[in-house]
Amino acid sequence: MSKIAVINSSYPTYNLAAHKMLVKFKREGHDVLFSPRADMMAMQADKAYLSVIFTYDLPKLYQDANLLRQNGVELEIGGPAATALPQYIVENTGVTPHLGLDERFEHVPGNKFFATFTSRGCPRNCEFCLVPRLEGRKMIEYDDFSIPVGKNPYVCDNNILATSWAHQQLVVEKLKHVKNLDLNSGFDDRIFMKDPEKYWRLYSQLHLEAWRFAYDTPAQREAIKETAEFLHGKGVDYRRIIVFCLIGFPGTKFSEAVEKIEYLIGLGTSPYPMRYRPLDALERNFTPPGWAEGEIEKLFAWAGVPFVWRSCSWEDFKWKGELSKRKLWV
User: Fold this and answer.
1) CB 137 within 8 A of CB 168
2) Which of 2, 55, 119, 228 could, after both became Cys, cross-link 46 (CB 3.0–4.6 A)?
3) CB neighbours of 45 closer than 8 A, spacing ≥ 6?
C-alpha cells in the first residue's frame, strides 16, 4: 500500500472532500497523512491529493504543489477553485486539475463528517456563482447521503428546494433527529413563497439552527419581505431568520449595499453580508469598481457583527467611527 498525503489547501475551512479522501484511503489500507500544508511528512508521501475551495488559496496551493513535485511526490489537484481556474494551476504547477465533482469521493460512507450534500446542482444561473460550472444546473439527488455530526452539523445543498418533493421528505426524515442543524446555503425564497405553508410544515420538523435565505439580486426583494412576514407569523424572531446579502457586485453602488442591509434589518431579519469576489479572484479582499478603498470593510464592521448593527444605525456607526478617528489624530 502507498503513503498518501491529503492536503486541505483551504484550511482552516472544513473541507468535506478532503475528509472523505482521508476515510476512503484509510479503508483501502493506505498510510494516510492529513495536513493543511506540504510539510516534511507530506514530502515523504508517494502521492498527494490537494483539495482547494477558494481561488484566493491557489497561490498557497501552487507553492505546496511545486515543493511536493520537487521531492518526487505524485500529485492530484481538485476542488471548486480548481474548476474555477484550471489554467492557473496548469501554468504554475504543470498539473492538469480534476474539474467538477469527483465521483471517487462523492459517495464515501461515514458517520463522522461534519457536513453533507444530499443533492448537487442549482437551476439558477447566477453570474457571480460557480455552482453551475462545478455541479451543473440539473439537480442530482442522493439517497445515500451521510448524516452530519458535530456541534453545528452542516447540510451544504446549493438549492434544496429545487429538488423533488420526495427527496425533501427523505432528507427531513433522515435528519430530523440532528440537533442544531445548519442548512447552510438556505432556502430559495422565490420557491419557498410559492407554498410557504407546505415548506413550513416539512422543515419545521428539523432542529434548524436558523432559517437561512438570500437577498442577492433586486428580483428577490419582495420575496424576502413576504418570507420574513410569514416566518414572523409563525413566531420565528429575527435571530433565526438569517439572510445572506451579496455586497459589492460590479455595477452596484455603495449606497445600494447600505440600503440592502438596512432593508433586511427593517424587515426583522438578521443580515449576513457576503463579499462579492470575481470567480477568478486570487486575493481575499476585493474592492468593487467605483468604491472607495476601505468602504466595504467599514460596512462589514457594522453589518457583519450582530451586536453592532443591533445597537446602532449605520449613520450612528459612521459618525462614531469618524469621531474616533479624529480623536486618534488629536
Assistant:
1) no
2) 2
3) 2, 3, 4, 5, 33, 68, 73
Q: ∠94-21-63 over CA atoms, to 5°?
A: 30
User: Using alpha carbons only, what angle is made at residue 267 by residues 239 and 130, rounded to the nearest 5 degrees?
Assistant: 75
Could you give the count of Cα atoms lying within 13 Å of 24 in the half-sphere of its Cβ? 16
pLDDT of residue 329: 31
Residue 326 has pLDDT above 50, yes or no: no
∠ CA 21-186-144, rounded to 5°: 40
Q: Which CATH superfamily is domain 3-93 in?
A: Cobalamin-binding domain (3.40.50.280)
241-252 as b/e: b if 16+ CB within 10 A: bbbbbbbbeeeb
Q: Write the CA distances from 15 to 74, 172, 261, integer angstroms.
A: 21, 24, 30
Q: What is the DSSP string of 264-297?
A: HHHTT-EEEEEE---TT--SS--PPTTPPTTHHH
Q: Domain ranges in the chain?
A: 3-93, 109-325
- The band of 288, judged by pLDDT with boundaries at 50, 70 and 90, is confident
Mind listing the pLDDT tens digit for each residue in 227-277?
999 999 999 999 999 999 999 999 999 999 999 999 999 999 999 999 999
Angle between helices 254-266 and 295-303 (to 10 degrees): 10
117 within 8 A of 142, measured Cβ to Cβ: yes
| pLDDT exceeds cutoff 90 at 72 | yes
Q: With beta carbons less than 8 A apart as the criterion, state whether 185 and 161 touch.
A: no
